[in-house]
Every structure is written in structure tokens, then in C-alpha cells.
Design goal:
Chain lengths: ~100, ~160
Amino acid sequence: MSATTEVLPEIEHAHQADSSTALEPGYLVICWDDPVNLMQYVTHVFQTVFGWNRQKAQRHMLEVHTQGKSVLAREGLEKAEFFVHQLQKYNLHATLERDAE
Amino acid sequence: MNLISSTAEQFEFELNHEEHALLFHVLLQYPLVPATHHRLSQNSEISQVEENQRLLEESLQSHRTTQREQVMALLRDADRFVAADEGLQVTFTRAEIEWLLQVFNNVRVGSWLALGSPDATAEDRRPTKKTAPHLMNMEVAGFFEMNFINALTGDE
């Protein structure tokens, strides 16, 4: 019983997620590299805004640093705007761009 | 600047008098980044981008007004900084450190913009009469950012 109970909600949630993402255009939240924001600061901001652990935040920070940018999230427009607002409050160079996929 | 003690939500620091003076100096510079500096998107073809850009600028301006009030309240609170053996002691909550980080980084980024947004490889970074204040603000703001982040993460 418990196994069935655990499985059904996951399937239902995944189905709903697929439906919503299939209909809604995706927007990428991108953080761009710049020479002024400190690496430790960027890592901290990623942890704070997205709730990531330090390892994941550092990985994205290093991606920004070495590749010039990192895609932090793919969301609908409203959620993407929210994340960009939060990042810009910390004065990171962040924008949202339409997902080409 | 030293972290004397901490709990999950409170962080006690000791600053010498020079650090205390620099803290006040940098906080008084806020805000330096214009609200119009940040762009919502690099792609002007995204629908409604102009309206959303305007909303972003309004939101950031409102945020900065609130933070400016927080900064001034902190600086005017005579009881926040307590005399200690080697300087002064001050306690910040985790939430206060978060908005102070935003304030310091606004001063750092704003100072960098005032310098003409030089890249990391800019050859001539010697301080001049014109650039010295901005260079100093950048470095001091970064100093406090690192101390606060190290306190939050437990790093030394």
C-alpha cells in the first residue's frame, strides 16, 4: 500500500509538470560573467536565491567564471522574472532569455 | 574585523576603529548603481519586455529606498556599536547580513561602473585623484562582503 501510495503522487505530479511545460514557453534565467562580482559572493547568492547546496552553487559559479555564463533555471515568464529580480537585487548580471527549445 | 561568536541567526563581530570608520563611509555611499542599469533581458523581441523592464526598474528603486532607510537607521542607532577593548562590537542577525551584503555589493558594483567598468585585464589601474575614491570603495566593500560571507558559511 505504501508503495502504491508513494508512486501515484509522483506520476500525477510529473504528468502535471509535463502538461504545464508543454504549453508554456520556457525562459532561461542566465547569470553572466563580469569582472566585479566576487566568486564567493556569487556562490552565496545562488545558494540564497535558489536554495542550492554549496556544491551546486559553486558549479554554476565556476560555469559563469569559465564559460562566460550559466543557465540557472528554466521557468515560465513570471517565475523567471522573479528569479532575475532576486539576482539583480544582489547586483549580479542576470537576465532572462527565451528558451530556443 | 573578527567574528567573535555566532549562532544560527546572530553573528557578533569586533571591529577596530578604522574598520568602523570605513564601514560607515561605505554604507553612506549607498546606493551607487542606477536602477536603470539592470536589463531584464538582452533580447528586445521578448513580448512585453518594455513594460516588464519598467516594472523591474520600479521594483529595484523601491527596494533601494527601503534599504537606504535601513542603512540610515543602522548608522543612527547609537546602541548598535558597543565599545570593546580593541575597538567596537556589533551584532547582526542573519537577515541583516543579507541586506548588508546587497548594500555593499551595490557600492562595489556602482564604484566599478563609475570607473568605466574596467575588465580584469585593464592595464592601467594605478589610482589617480579621480579613480582613487572609487577603487577604495570597491576594495572596502569587497572586504566587508568577504567577512560577512565567511561568517555565514563558517569559513575563515
